[in-house]
Amino acid sequence: MLLEIKNLYVKYGNVEALHGININVDKGEIVTILGANGAGKSTTLMAVSGLVKASMGEIIFSGTPLHKISADKIVKLGISQSPEGRRVFGILTVLENLKLGAFTSSDNKKIKKNLDWIFELFPRLKERSEQLAGTLSGGEQQMLAIGRALMANPKILLLDEPSLGLAPILVKAIFETVREINKSGLTVVLVEQNAKAALKLAHRGYVMEVGNIVLEDTAQALLANPDVQNAYLGGT
Ligand code: ATP
């Protein structure tokens, strides 16, 4: 098991956002977490990245418990997150943004190799490497956010709503690239509101409702599940 989330509780002040959830991710998988607004999907990813703290429960990565490890060290262990809303640095160029993603490394050869790989995955970023990130389109900013997360050379990539606000054709392109990234050996956890696209891409999925996991199954079984179809797939 690469990542184990065991009985995880997270509180924001007095409000409990996660009520004891369990999620397992095996090496090489794409696991998707589905759910409506406010279900706790982003909170789950942020807890793994160390950006919010667990009030109870455990998160174990490659056998290492994460609860006492700071967010920057968690990145160094091999967990990298592409946050919701992209959060690229608008006044820096595409290349500068990507280089920031490599803060964990001083190995210039490795950095160059990663850059070449990211430019292969996203040729658009190569074309625009000297452009200010703030002037990129939404889809390009999403590519940059994923590319920046990859620069940290992760073992597991956490993607928070990569399709948010993108035209369908771009969603398809981004998801195809995620498939390619996974095929290269990287494990992926994908939080999505676009349930259909996410389930078509993922191996397995979890469904969250108000801070709980209510369903877990293979992606194929979730796609065929009438409850999932009615609640998340527009009844198709
Ligand atoms: P969305 O798709 O809208 O981002 P989500 O499933 O990712 O939803 P979370 O963002 O994890 O859900 O939110 C889970 C719950 O925690 C919600 O009720 C939300 O209002 C609450 N919450 C999230 N962040 C904070 C915060 N910083 N302070 C207080 N409450 C928060």
TrEMBL record:
Q: Start and end of every ABC transporter domain?
A: 3-235
One Pfam family, short name please?
ABC_tran
- Alphabetic keyword roster: Amino-acid transport, ATP-binding, Nucleotide-binding, Transport
Source taxon at top rank: Bacteria
Alphabetized Gene3D superfamilies for the sequence:
P-loop containing nucleotide triphosphate hydrolases
What GO terms in the biological process aspect are recorded for it?
L-amino acid transport
> GO molecular function terms here?
ATP binding; ATP hydrolysis activity; branched-chain amino acid transmembrane transporter activity
Per its UniProt record, what InterPro entries does this chain match?
A: AAA+_ATPase, ABC_branched_ATPase_LivF/BraG, ABC_transporter-like_ATP-bd, ABC_transporter-like_CS, BCAA_Transport_ATP-bd_LivF, P-loop_NTPase
Regarding protein family, the annotation reads:
Belongs to the ABC transporter superfamily.
Protein name according to UniProt: ABC transporter, ATP-binding protein
Query: Species name for this entry?
Result: Desulfonema limicola
